[in-house]
Amino acid sequence: PEPGPDPERGWRARARRAPWGTRGGRGAGDGSATGETPRTGPRPGASGPHATPEPPDPSVVAAALGGAIDDTPGLSVLVFDRELRVRAVAGIDLGSAEGALLIGRPVVHAFPLAARRPLAAALAAALEGAERTVALPDAEGAERLEATCRPAVAGVPGGVCVVRDLEVLGGGSLLVEAQRAFEITFRHSPIGQGLLSRTGRWLRVNGALAELLGRPEEELVGAEAVDAMHPEDREDERERLRTLVDGVDDHYVVGTRFLHVDGHVVRTHTRMTRITDEDEIARGFVAQVVDAAAWRRFRGG
What we know:
5-stranded antiparallel sheet; alpha+beta; single chain; 10 strands; elongated; 26% helix
């Protein structure tokens, strides 16, 4: 069987010497790889300063655009059909031979294994008429790639996937910058915050939450959130989480009693928000926990 491309080489070895059409990146039969450039200019028989030039040959335009993409470090474009198979590529950095082998293969085969699941959701959204941008890990696991998948032009089935290597392009990604800002806010927020699994176990907690409960972060992670609550409040809390999982509500705000490690009761103002996947299925929760006395002072109560 014909060997496929090796996505685990990562998006490293750019092959930018040959233009798009000569790298097998365009669809077969478009004539762009012949090197022939059709003449343009006045129509046959036309004369004078107002002669209308012939429209440029589409294959020449496509080859020019593809060549420009090839010569832009860190930028790649894949055109795919409704079966999510590659119909054309430009700038793909798998090398000329492997770039040619992508034609007709599933789009995800151009990416490392770890990137395929988030990419698949963005590709499916493009087929439904939506544009979506996702961060993707490279072969080493670092989220240095950003892919924007969008529908093709009106009347053309399929879509376009534009991939940016953020390391090469200087990291100018709004999505990545927003993720970094969230991470800084989470770690340094004066409000207790935590990320919980669908089953109600702490996956991450910040320093403010750990301090509020008097417990180290590593002790909280992996434990059920209700374990740190007053015994009389635990079953009610489990029921509230079930309503979020079932989709009855997307969040709730409630007064909750936690137990400090030294045994005293910590009364809190807690907001729990559901996190969902693309299908609106609950994946987990974000908890924001504030000391109730501090909350009342803030609200002027």
